[in-house]
RNA sequence: GGCGAGUUACCCAAGCGGCCAAAGGGAUCUGACUGUAACUCAGCUGUGUUACCACUUCGGGGGUUCGAAUCCCUCACUCGCCA
């Protein structure tokens, strides 16, 4: 494999693997089909003339995250096959809240939701081509639900729904069996999502909706509604929820979500997340999150088994996914920073430019000479309190420029500032922060 | 509607007047090992400038007491049993 830090190294061009008999077969091979409506019919449908399909994203946060990335790349694969994507942002569904199995959601203000709708819309468009006859079209479900009166909604949509069926949906029954119960608001969610599909079917002849398998109840809400209202069978595909082989939640780093917004998770942090993928998970991730061909992935799979310590799979995965989300430039910078910071080498020997860009990738604390390291650790977000800082140092878990800090009383000194740029503060093996001087 | 049980730190769960910042387990975090791993072993885990010192904490509020997570009253919520 070529060196990924090489300027010549470029991410693979997104395309579907022509060695598969059909797009459907590739999707199955990649493990992207967890549940669907009629598989045979879908295989045919996806092989035929372009169809219109959609996937919705609710504004529950100011950015999409890795779970959403599965959907976006799934959509991209269909688009590459010539199909027409509709990117839906949930301006109205975001106001209501999809019932989570555990507890009622806190409603966000309309202003907040509207703001997030804008952010998500922009993110979605970065992953789907706007070019050609099958360029992505963005829609917002608030456009057709806002003008709808409660009476019309109940008469035109509600009449098609049986409460018995609604109660059987997993998300709803889980809540009914829990202490949390469920509000009428969230109970109504499936009607709204069903209406979306119906609306898109009528407006754009949309005949396929994809979503996470946990959304299956909501996906079928739409297919059932269209069947009742229009007498037509349309389709739905539920992609698997990505899980880690060790049972922990995928897409979280120390409990925090991995967001796609570089302001929330830096490209460096994003790259690091992927580089730290477990051996047991690498191949499955490559299939889902990259456009590498089957042959290439099978080749890497062998390397992962034969030479796991080289971590070629992780590096390739991190390179590809980070490039897809943040671009090649940012990815190269992230790799360079990773090498500078994790290399066994002496940080003091780095040149100013390399060090500066490496530090730029890290969370930052502004310090001044004489400032206690315990405070800098807190400022950098490496610890939560001075006590924790002290404890970490006493356990030998804190490093300044790769040198263990011996005393909890240590302060920032002038010689710690490398080539006039700053210092590298590290907690544990791989949690890093930059320290720069205030001036 | 009646009777009974319960609400403890990130989660589960002991404690039932002082020795309780609060057992134990899980989880996180740190160290050794290592591949920036996994497994295993060890340690930390309320806050405070370095502390057997102070402060905040045991559902909310109010009492009793030299002293309460522990006793009393009250409010809220949860869970059983009987109507």
Counting DSSP E segments of at least 2 residues, the number of strands comes to 13
The major beta sheet can be summarized as: 6 strands, mixed
Q: Kindly state the mean pLDDT as a whole number?
A: 90
Uncertain spans: none
Percent of residues in beta strands? 5-15%
CATH homology group of the largest domain = HUPs
Number of domains: 3
CATH class of the largest domain: Alpha Beta
Q: Give the number of helices.
A: 20
**Morphology:** globular
| Category by helix and strand content | alpha/beta
Q: What fold name stands as the CATH topology of the largest domain? A: Rossmann fold
The value of Rg in angstroms is 25 Å
Could you estimate the helical fraction of the residues in percent? Answer: 40-55%
- Side-by-side strand order of the widest sheet: 1-6-5-2-3-4
- The appropriate CATH architecture of the largest domain is 3-Layer(aba) Sandwich
Distance between the termini: 45 Å
Q: What does it look like?
A:
It contains 20 helices and 13 strands. The chain has 3 domains: 32-239, Rossmann fold (3-Layer(aba) Sandwich); 252-342, Tyrosyl-Transfer RNA Synthetase (Orthogonal Bundle); 362-437, RNA-binding S4 domain (Structural Genomics Hypothetical 15.5 Kd Protein In mrcA-pckA Intergenic Region, Chain A), CATH 3.10.290. The protein has a 6-stranded mixed beta sheet, sandwiched between helices. A 5-stranded mixed beta sheet has the order 9-13-12-10-11. The protein is globular and about 75 Å long. The chain starts with 22 loop residues before the first helix and ends with a strand. With 439 residues, the protein is of the alpha/beta class. It binds one RNA strand of 83 nucleotides through α17 and α20.
């Amino acid at each position: 494999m070529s060196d990924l830090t090489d300027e010549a190294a470029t991410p693979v061009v997104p395309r579907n693997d022509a060695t598969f008999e059909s797009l459907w077969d590739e999707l199955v091979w990649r493990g992207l089909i967890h549940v669907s409506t009629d598989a045979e019919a879908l295989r045919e449908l996806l092989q035929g003339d372009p169809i219109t399909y959609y996937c919705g994203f609710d504004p529950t946060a100011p950015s999409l995250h890795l779970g959403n990335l599965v959907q976006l790349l799934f959509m991209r694969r269909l688009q590459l096959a010539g199909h027409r994507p509709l990117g839906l942002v949930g301006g109205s569904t975001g106001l209501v809240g999809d019932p989570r199995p555990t507890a009622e959601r806190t409603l966000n203000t309309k202003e907040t939701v509207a703001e997030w709708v804008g952010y998500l819309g922009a993110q979605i468009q970065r992953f789907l081509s706007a070019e050609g006859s099958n360029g992505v079209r963005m829609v917002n479900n608030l456009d057709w639900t806002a003008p709808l009166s409660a009476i019309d909604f109940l008469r035109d949509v509600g009449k098609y729904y049986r409460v018995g069926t609604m109660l059987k949906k997993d998300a709803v029954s889980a809540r009914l069996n829990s202490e949390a119960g469920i509000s009428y608001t969230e109970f109504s969610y499936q009607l709204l999502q069903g209406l979306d599909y119906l609306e898109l079917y009528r407006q754009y002849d949309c005949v396929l909706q994809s979503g996470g398998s946990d959304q299956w109840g909501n996906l079928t809400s739409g297919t059932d509604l269209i069947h009742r209202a229009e007498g037509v069978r349309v389709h739905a595909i539920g992609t698997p929820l990505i899980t880690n082989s060790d049972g922990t939640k995928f897409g979280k780093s120390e409990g925090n979500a991995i967001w796609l917004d570089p302001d929330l998770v830096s490209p460096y942090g994003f790259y690091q997340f992927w580089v730290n993928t477990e051996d047991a998970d690498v191949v499955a991730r490559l299939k889902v999150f990259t456009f590498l061909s089957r042959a290439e992935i099978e080749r890497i799979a062998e390397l992962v088994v034969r030479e796991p310590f080289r971590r070629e799979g992780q590096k390739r995965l991190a390179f590809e996914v980070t490039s897809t989300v943040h671009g090649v430039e940012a990815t190269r910078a992230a790799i360079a920073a990773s090498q500078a910071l994790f290399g066994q080498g002496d940080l003091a020997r780095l040149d100013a430019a390399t060090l500066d860009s490496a530090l730029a990738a890290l969370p930052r604390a502004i310090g001044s000479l004489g400032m206690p390291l315990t405070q800098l650790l807190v400022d950098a977000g490496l610890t939560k309190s001075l006590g924790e800082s002290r404890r970490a140092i006493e356990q030998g878990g804190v490093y300044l420029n790769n040198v263990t800090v011996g005393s909890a009383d240590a302060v920032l000194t002038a010689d710690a500032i490398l080539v006039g740029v700053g210092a590298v503060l590290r907690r544990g093996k791989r949690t890093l922060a930059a320290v720069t001087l205030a001036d």
